[in-house]
């Protein structure tokens, strides 16, 4: 096990509790209930928490020392024994009673009392800091806690990786946060207590009980110094840019109109966090602006007319995605452009869905059609699932276009001055 990754299946581990059997040098067994483990929900493998192992090793030494000296063990015994039918257990111990004697450091001061679990700090690897006791205690929030920072004019939100982001106040870094596999927001207690009291009260309003799961790019970046991968949305924007730049370089045509407003729109494209139509619309509308509305009709039409004069009449009625599709059909090989470009049409239709530009019945039918074309069940209603699938399909679309554009023919035309 490395950090919070399972050695067997590489899934994320979370803190959980169970019984631990220890075998003494004499061959006798003792058992400890409520022992902290790091558990994988996928393959069910469990690992003893590092600090828990240290404490159990000390317990074992004390018990063996007491046996050797024939003295009574001074560790408090839990009288409510578990099921010993499958093991010959000499004695049962309660890890909670051991923990209370060891994990009793004075924590950092709080003006606003937050909900958190000190076990996360002590028994999740890498969080203990002797010079700032409790600073790296994870505090958990509903995902809706981010709404203020998304919409408030004084703040900005940057989710550069799928499960790691930053909150800005003006142009200055304000808070770092993570998103765990249960879609809960994680922040460090030490960061929170340094905020003004009003901000702390806002965060406290969305504060929830720990689910003991902090496996994320947030944890990897801040604890393991592993650089977070770009989010799916960021990777898509980069893929789109690569495609546009390659076409511009090899074909001498700008298939997208680029201006300063494009940069502003791109900043609004971020991972969908909340399963509501409003949040969905806030993603889909800028996506449509950047991927559909900026298609350079004038430049593409001019390019096609110059190379294919016979298309002049057909081009009179083509614009947007249909026009780009025609250009791709003339400049790619070995792919069905009609099939590959489908995610752009889905994106356009999802804009209509999210903006409620149809009656409710028509809207439901169009949404079902979009889901079917994305390979989802037509009854799918989870906006996060739909958005994530759309992002994936658009990314794959650009991969296909980049791979199958006729780069060689474009270079030959350029050399011939065409």
Give an account of the 3D structure:
The protein is α+β, with helices and mostly antiparallel strands and about 425 residues long. The strands form two sheets. A six-stranded antiparallel β-sheet has the order 6-7-8-9-5-10. Strands 1, 2, 3 and 4 form a four-stranded mixed β-sheet that branches. The protein folds into three domains: about 15-100, no CATH class; about 120-220; about 230-415, no CATH class. The protein has helices at about 50-70, 95-100, 120-125, 145-150, 190, 195-205, 215-220, 230-250, 260-265, 275-295, 295-305, 310-315, 320-330, 335-340, 340-355, 360-375, 385-405, 405-415; strands at about 15-25, 30-40, 45-50, 90-95, 140, 155-160, 165-170, 170-180, 185-190, 205-210.
Q: Which properties best describe this structure?
A:
single chain; 46% helix; 418 residues; 3 domains; 15% strand; six-stranded antiparallel β-sheet; 18 helices
